[in-house]
Every structure is written in C-alpha cells, then in structure tokens.
Amino acid sequence: MEGGEEDYTAANAGASATYPVQCSSLRKNGFVMLKARPCKIMEMSTSKTGKHGHAKVHLVGLDIFTNKKYEDLCPSTHNIDVPNVNRCDFQVSMFAELSILKCVN
C-alpha cells in the first residue's frame, strides 16, 4: 500500500465460530462440529482402551439446521471443535390481527 492507503476489508471482531474441547468432556444434548456441520449430540458412547490404543468416543448428532444425522469416532484425549451457539428468546408485546374482508355479492 502506497501513499497511506490502508485496506480494512479483511478486518473482523476477533470472534471465532468454534472453539476446541476435549472429546471426553462432551455430553449428550451438547453441541459439536461433525463433518464440518454444527450438530446436537443425540448419542455418545466411550469404548475402553485397547492394548496399543486410546479410548475412543463414538458421537451421533443431528445437524441443527437440516436435521441430517452425522456420526464420528475420535480418541477421547483429542480435541474437537464445538460451535458457539447462542439462544435468544423474544416476547411479542403487541400484535394487531389483520382481517381480510371478503365481498359477498
């Protein structure tokens, strides 16, 4: 950039859409990213440690937008992304009902 020209088109607030969490700390009815989609955890099971491996967590979740089922298997000590999910409740304070009048001949 020459002559004091600055480009701010790539600026952001610094917030992230996801954050990492250890697989073993996830719980049923929580949220997780499965196959790059935000999902609500419907089923979760943990296998025992094998002779040469780690305990594994089997996750089954429903996409929060499409209700499509996704499954994943990850070691319990590894991190997995969890989406930032906010719930906002609204209350309607005024509602005017619009009635449509039909003309009868």
TrEMBL record:
Ranges where the Translation initiation factor 5A-like N-terminal domain occurs: 16-78
PTM comment: eIF-5A seems to be the only eukaryotic protein to have a hypusine residue which is a post-translational modification of a lysine by the addition of a butylamino group.
Gene Ontology CC terms, in alphabetical order: cytoplasm
Signal peptide span: none
Pfam families attached to this UniProt entry: IF5A-like_N
Lineage top rank: taxon: Eukaryota
InterPro entries: IF5A-like, IF5A-like_N, Rib_uL2_dom2, Trans_elong_IF5A_hypusine_site, Translation_prot_SH3-like_sf
Keyword Protein biosynthesis (UniProt): yes
GO BP, sorted A to Z: positive regulation of translational elongation; positive regulation of translational termination
Function: Translation factor that promotes translation elongation and termination, particularly upon ribosome stalling at specific amino acid sequence contexts. Binds between the exit (E) and peptidyl (P) site of the ribosome and promotes rescue of stalled ribosome: specifically required for efficient translation of polyproline-containing peptides as well as other motifs that stall the ribosome. Acts as ribosome quality control (RQC) cofactor by joining the RQC complex to facilitate peptidyl transfer during CAT tailing step.
Family: Belongs to the eIF-5A family.
Name this polypeptide is given: Eukaryotic translation initiation factor 5A
Natural source organism: Larinioides sclopetarius
